[in-house]
Design a protein that fits this description.
The chain is mainly α. Helix content is 72%, strand content 0%.
């Protein structure tokens, strides 16, 4: 049986915990990346080429998973447009431009299709 006298956390404290967790995750992520950049040498040869080209296929794989449902069909035309816009922008090799192209394509397709 569950009693009604459970401990409640005030909303402000719960929000603080979430922000604290987010900040902690950001600090750990950036610290680990900065440490590996400063300490480890850049990979050379074939491994360096593979690592340099990894973000585009990884993004494409994540986008492909988002595009399909259990019937393996396109679920949302604006999402398809976002993926196509982002894939076109991958030649720039700029994550900012890739994301901006995907977002702009999504917005345009959403406006055109009424989503």
């Amino acid at each position: 049986m569950h009693g009604g006298g459970g401990c409640r956390v005030p909303a402000g404290e719960a929000r603080l915990s979430i922000w604290l967790l987010l900040a902690l995750a950001a600090v750990i992520t950036y610290t680990s990346r900065a440490a590996t950049t400063a300490v480890l040498p850049a990979p050379e040869g074939r491994l360096g080429v593979i690592i340099e080209r990894l973000p585009a296929p990884l993004f494409s794989a994540l986008a492909a998973v988002a595009l399909t449902d259990s019937a393996a069909g396109v679920t949302d035309w604006p999402v398809l447009a976002a993926v196509l816009g982002a894939l076109v922008a991958t030649r720039t090799r700029s994550m900012f431009l890739i994301l901006a192209a995907g977002l702009a394509s999504y917005a345009l397709a959403g406006w055109l299709t009424g989503f």
